[in-house]
Amino acid sequence: MTKIGLGMPGLSIGDVQRSAAAAAQYAFDSFSVYGDLGDLPPYAALHAIADLLRGSRVRMVGPMGVPVGMQHPELIAQHARALTEQLPGQSFVGLVRGAFLEQIGERPASLGQMRETVQLVRSKVDVPIYFGGFGPRILGLAGELDVAGVKMGGSTNLALAERARKLINNDGVALVLGAVSVVDRDGAAARRLARMEVGKYLDVVGGLDPTLDEDQRASLAEFRQRFAQRDSEAYMSIADGLLDNFAMAGTPEEVAGRIDAMRGRVDRFELGTPHGLTDRPTAIRFIGDSILRELGE
Prior knowledge:
Largest sheet: 10 strands, parallel
Helix content: 40-55%
Number of helices: 12
Number of strands: 10
Number of domains: 1
Order of helices and strands: EHEHEEHEHEHEHEHHHHEHEH
């Protein structure tokens, strides 16, 4: 079955600590902290929550991911080793090229740098290594290097997952999806908030999905046009089908059903920010009490 994890933005140490304390009560498969532009460095947050999650029912804890284009492989390896000491047998490291680096005048890591980093980390510490990305070259490299898994962040699209499986071409590499997630008893309100959250980045990531059908491409084009005109309600043009490719939103039963439909095609789905309509710890506990129970975890 498809396991369920949590993806956290590094908004503040306190936010991640409160979220970790809530998650520790449940059998989530993972607790990952993003390394996106504007977030705290993921290891800063992870070291602060290690005591909360050590020995808990949460199976794996780590960064998703570390932008290799910003750090030397030696430093990445030593950070991974430090977290392994705090969470023996419970940590992982996620590596990304760092596409966002172009926004600050830097270059994303090359495939050669990704390869070098994997080799160095493996020489320093025994820890599962994940890649984050969508591109065919990074997916192919993940299969070649036999990493633990690949996370395709910002997507819930099973067609994209199936395409990735073929490009990875290695059954031993786990496939992880993750996206904006809003779970609440009020499914309509959950989907409304998800539209607003997805609208913040859909103009950038929407075109990266080559599997969109004609209706979804039309919805994306309308959204982009309104977004370019600074229409504050551009997100309202995101059709249901398009939304469901980039977000996980609805009632617990609806979300559980969609995750269950990933069985056999996706190994883990990480529910991402903002998680619910309430504060994050309350939303996490709601997810644990509803969806994990619904799926029998």
